[in-house]
UniProtKB/TrEMBL annotation:
Native organism taxonomy: Bacteria, Pseudomonadati, Planctomycetota, Planctomycetia, Planctomycetales
Domain of life per record: Bacteria
Cleaved signal peptide residues: 1-26
Keywords: Signal
Protein name (database record): Uncharacterized protein
Length: 395
């Protein structure tokens, strides 16, 4: 899931769904997780290390796509009981290579034959990395401790796979590893995001990990990184902001409030990144910053008509019923005469009305009464919008 696509103003209902989906990921700021090598191996019924042995090139005149032969060097998995070292596997389609080049073949059993996937080029190093990886059913923390050592390994296949392991892992399993995270290396990688292929796309994860493992000096480094002026979209800066808040708490949030939420001179993408950091802390922050303090920061963005509908969705999820009077004022404000904002306000009231909280005396909570009164008023003054909002409202 690409959270950055929200910059293109998807409807609020899809925004809400995106936020729910994000909670299932270890890193909402990472590229979409892909199948790791160990996941692919675990799902295979046959796996062999092979070397390129030759082949027959394609002949277009004869509509012949060619063939390629591979010699088995080592059998990793074989549920067919037919694979042996030294045997040759011939695949359709000619794939140019050099004799001795290594590949990993993964296959599944269909009837009495093996269906092989496309060969994955490997080196002795990447193959040994895969072989030594903890099995898929090993405890997640044990697995991540192994993959952490390879996050920026020179072999691109290894580095990408190690990154994917973190992108796939539950955040709760990453947190206990904070004491063994390569803090100084993380800082160097963030300092030089273009220093290695694909490093820029991993900035969000590295920022989050530095926030978990960092010290006061790292907090100052992250603050400077966040406050760098930029006219372009900064990939992963939302992860850096989230790591900064994990590390600094309320003090860091004061900085984000001043420079990213209240400051209208910064690009929209920077403000949205700060909004993502608030969402992250709400979901994963474990009260590092109190719910009331997070609500206070999110409310700042109600003053931005371009973000208001998204903010209202979050405030409803966060049970911020104290903002009702403000929302009713916005409903009639000239700058907020946008259908998506009006529908978001109506849905906020619908959610508040369905909230079943009661007072200590067993009476209906004040915010439920207020929401009902607000809805009655809006039904009289703007029945078309209320009907539209109710049409897609799911209790």
């Amino acid at each position: 899931m690409r959270l950055y696509s929200l910059l293109f103003r998807l409807p609020s209902v899809f925004i809400a769904l995106a936020c729910v989906t994000a909670t299932a990921l270890a890193c909402p700021f990472c590229d979409a997780p892909s199948l790791t090598l160990t996941e692919q191996l675990s799902a295979s019924q046959a796996a062999v290390l092979v070397q390129w042995a030759g082949g027959e090139e394609a002949d277009r005149e004869k509509s012949f796509s060619g063939t390629t032969s591979y010699e088995i060097i080592e059998v990793v998995e074989d549920e067919s009981n037919k694979l042996e070292k030294g045997k040759t596997i011939k695949l359709d389609r000619y794939r140019a290579s050099k004799k001795g080049d290594l590949f990993l073949l993964l296959g599944t059993l269909t009837d009495d034959r093996i269906e092989w996937s496309s060969p994955l080029e490997v080196t002795e190093t990447s193959y040994n990395y895969m072989k030594q990886s903890p099995p898929q059913d090993a405890p997640t923390q044990q697995r991540l401790a192994y993959f952490m050592k390879f996050l920026e390994y020179p072999d691109a296949l290894i580095a990408t796979d190690a990154y994917s392991e973190f992108a796939n892992a539950p955040y709760k399993d990453i947190v206990p590893l904070r004491n063994i995270m390569p803090r100084e290396k993380l800082r160097e990688w963030l300092k030089d995001p273009e220093g290695a292929p694909s490093r820029a796309t991993r900035t969000g994860l590295f920022g989050l990990l530095l926030g978990l493992s960092g010290n006061e000096d790292d907090a100052e480094f992250m603050k400077a990184k966040i406050l760098e002026e930029s006219d372009t979209f900064r990939l992963g800066i939302d992860g850096v902001m989230s790591g900064y808040l994990v590390l600094t708490g309320d003090e860091g949030l004061d900085v984000i409030d001043e420079h990213k939420l209240r400051n209208r001179e910064v690009p929209f993408s920077e403000t949205f990144a700060a909004m993502q950091a608030l969402r992250f802390m709400w979901t994963y922050g474990d009260n590092r910053i109190s719910p009331d303090r997070l609500r206070k920061s999110m409310r700042i963005l109600l003053d931005r008509p371009t973000l208001a509908d998204l903010v209202i969705v979050d405030l409803a999820r966060w049970d911020d019923w104290g903002v009702m009077d403000k929302l009713m004022e916005l409903y009639d404000d000239e700058e907020y005469q946008v259908p998506s904002i009006k529908r978001a306000i109506v849905r906020f009231m619908l959610i508040a009305e369905k909230n079943n909280e009661t007072s200590a005396e067993g009476e209906v909570a004040d915010h439920v009464k207020q929401a009902s009164a607000n809805l009655e008023k809006l039904r009289k003054e703007d029945p078309k919008t209320v009907k539209s909002a109710e049409r897609y409202f799911f209790d």
